[in-house]
């Protein structure tokens, strides 16, 4: 009973799970990954909706642990589309022979720690089990779809889809009346694509979202060659930025220049496109007056694109820009100029119910053939709380987190020995470029396990004090900026009944990495190792 089947059990075979398998091998640790899907890729396996693509440039949203991999892979576009990112994940799995250590169609229902044997046992929904000394949750920050609690959903006689659970053989929208519920990132990417084929598209919007143009284009071979010639420099520059995205991050205040210069900078960034629009000035997310200047600029852009002034006003968000994750689009606002696209405002009259023929709002019936829910995820905690995770003394993680999560570094929790989370709550994760952040986490976690093994320990667990102090620091840091004031999935506002707690670490990637490195250098201070 004291001998596990594996040193490490990994839940998930997305980018985190794949790299974990590779790192475990490098360190001489036996590992097995369980994946709920039928293939690798995680987010990019499930989210196959029309227009799905990354909002971080391809050359930066990629692994850096193997230079040969960086040199051999060629991206086709500035922002890679979902099929290409999925092919990349599959290529990595094949190139490093990772498929041998992955079991597919294994959705984990429970994970239990046995104190006597110091082992974790994972239970799949189909009844299979696996035991391991360590368990690493590589379940993804955005992997549990949020189905809104709308009356009558099962009564609909047409097709019903969620963007995060898209059919692998696609959806035929030709000559169909389509309803899209939600205006977050997946909706903003998919609506222009759906509108090209559908007879009509009716968008049901509760809260408008800010979006900036992607200005996507085929990859410039000269640019790609320049990057490959000095990839190390790009990666170094990435790691020194708050969000792990290399580029032009301003070091001046929006209020330190006059209006003409400020607008000129916004125009320049708008033409460039992408997430670094928010980096036009360094106080956009710290000072409300600075934020208002950018907010006003984007509102004017929306009004200049959308022909119907009433629709344009409905599309202008009234909250701070950057409070929610900024969206990056291709022709989203212009799509509302199409004759087959209409907008329904849900702020005054929420959806009453779904019936056999469509959606009823404020007593008005909208008959449709297809309903697409683009309503996001139970972010950061949902993938963990849906699993029955029990630690020391039967402690249930779901119950422990009912009033909000608490972790040490977003990596581990007291009373849950030998359990690690990749990009868990309390880490920078979703506020950063996820690929390099995943790599940092995986390298740190596997090094910690190897350290314990080499020291003869079989139990690794953060102390209650270390966890409490870190979580207090996470919340204190969140309160320093404007981001925590917004009703976003960063604070669980999109999930009914979810505790309102700021989930990611807002101290920036460089500071987080510095603290992690310091803790490791000090013999993994804050962790108790025994056995």
Distance between the termini: 15 Å
* CATH class membership of the largest domain: Alpha Beta
CATH superfamily of the largest domain: FAD/NAD(P)-binding domain
Inertia-based shape: globular
Strand proportion: 15-25%
Content-based structural category: alpha/beta
> What value does the average pLDDT take?
97
Question: Looking at CATH, which topology of the largest domain would you report?
Answer: FAD/NAD(P)-binding domain
Number of domains: 2
Unreliable residue runs: none
This entry's quaternary arrangement is single chain
Report the strand count. 20
**How many H/I helical runs?**
15
What summary fits the major beta sheet?
8 strands, mixed
- Any guess at the CATH architecture of the largest domain? 3-Layer(bba) Sandwich
Task: Round the Cα radius of gyration to an integer and report it.
Answer: 23 Å
Fraction of residues in helix: 25-40%
